[in-house]
């Protein structure tokens, strides 16, 4: 299992226990939304490759990342099929969209913020795989544990790209703003369970 301490140090909060309990109550939605997240992660990487063709290192890193995310997507839908879970259309969590609203609109600031947001999302995904793995059945526990290494590398890839393409001062200035918004989303209530939802809304 990958060393998660750098990710725990990076994020401003741990996943609340209430979210873990909620996930265990919705095993089908957990896998459906996990599949959606892998597909979206691949799409995000490809979109960045189309938009920023002048950055050679970005193209190489995100090409590899997109392939890995699609491979994870294939693994998740195979697990769903073996468990008789239909792949339904479900609405996305507000999490990623709300984070992306924080991105500045002018370049190159938009690119730097987008890469930092990518790092934050990958870090949270990795942290959630780690907290879920001990609570799941043996097959899912092993699968989620197997994802930790690649997801933690994706976090580092996005963070490294942001630091290479922006100034260290800019990255250090923007990260606290984005991480604070991420913490608010993770700790605030949501009406529907998703992989990146906050805590359950008390009825």
Plain-language structure description:
With 203 residues, the chain is mainly alpha-helical. It has eight helices and two strands. A two-stranded parallel ribbon has the order 1-2. Helix 3 (27-51) packs antiparallel against helix 4 (56-82), helix 6 runs antiparallel to helix 7 (138-165) and helix 6 (109-132) packs across helix 8. The radius of gyration is 16 Å and the shape is globular. The model has no long low-confidence stretch (mean pLDDT 95).
Intertermini distance: 37 Å
Largest sheet: 2 strands, parallel
Strand order of the largest sheet: 1-2
Helix-strand topology string: HHHHHHHHEE
- Strand percentage lies at under 5%
């Amino acid at each position: 299992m990958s060393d998660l301490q750098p990710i725990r140090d990076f994020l401003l909060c741990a996943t609340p226990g209430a979210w873990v309990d909620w996930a265990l109550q919705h095993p089908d939605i957990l896998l459906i939304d996990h599949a959606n997240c892998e597909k979206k992660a691949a799409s995000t990487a490809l979109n960045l490759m189309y938009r920023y063709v002048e950055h050679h290192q970005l193209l190489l890193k995100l090409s590899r990342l997109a392939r890995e995310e699609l491979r994870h997507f294939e693994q998740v839908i195979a697990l769903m099929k073996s468990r008789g879970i239909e792949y339904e259309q479900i609405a996305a969590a507000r999490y990623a969209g709300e984070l992306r609203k924080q991105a500045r609109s002018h370049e190159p600031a938009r690119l730097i913020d987008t890469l930092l947001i990518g790092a934050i999302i990958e870090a949270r995904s990795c942290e959630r795989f780690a907290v879920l793995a001990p609570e799941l059945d043996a097959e899912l526990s092993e699968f989620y544990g197997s994802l930790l290494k690649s997801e933690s590398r994706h976090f580092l890839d996005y963070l490294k790209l942001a630091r290479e393409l922006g100034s260290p001062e800019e990255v250090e200035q923007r990260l606290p703003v984005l991480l604070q918004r991420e913490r608010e989303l993770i700790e605030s209530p949501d009406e529907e369970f998703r992989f990146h939802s906050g805590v359950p809304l008390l009825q």
